[in-house]
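Batch job 17 of 40 flagged for manual review because the log was empty.
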Amino acid sequence: MNPDFALTESLIRRYYDAFNAGNWEGMLDCLADDVVHHLNQGAREVGKPAFEAFLDRMARCYREQLKSIVVCVACDSTRAAAEYEVHGSYLADDEGLPPATGQRYVLPGGAFFDVRDGRIARVSNYYNLSDWIAQVSKTSERVGRDGLPA
């Protein structure tokens, strides 16, 4: 096996381990300084400061865990993909989206990566925004941290 293959897979898994732990510094450590971030159905942002602002918004508006993560790495180790299931709670209103009342959601997601010099140089995230909106829109009662009505 190409040794870079294992390093790329390890990098992507470390990135998601940090995400699941809420360790934003750990996630940022996986990124190149000029990382390109393609938000799902949204803007293209460049650089760690923009990514850090994205993480701050995520921490304010959502609590998510990624489960059943599968990582695939290209033969040349410069690109990778991941598929996962997002289990989350919508905690605070996010601009342009329905009001947040603690709604829970589960949906499939995925990401594509470019890897350069042992760091993630591009991450493109994808999930079905219409499915997410439908899930959070049909829940009208407030849900507490334990998943029970508040």
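Reviewer: the log was empty due to a logging misconfiguration, but the result itself is present. The beta strands are 31-38, 44-46, 62-73, 79-90, 103-116, 119-127. Unflagging and moving on to job 18.
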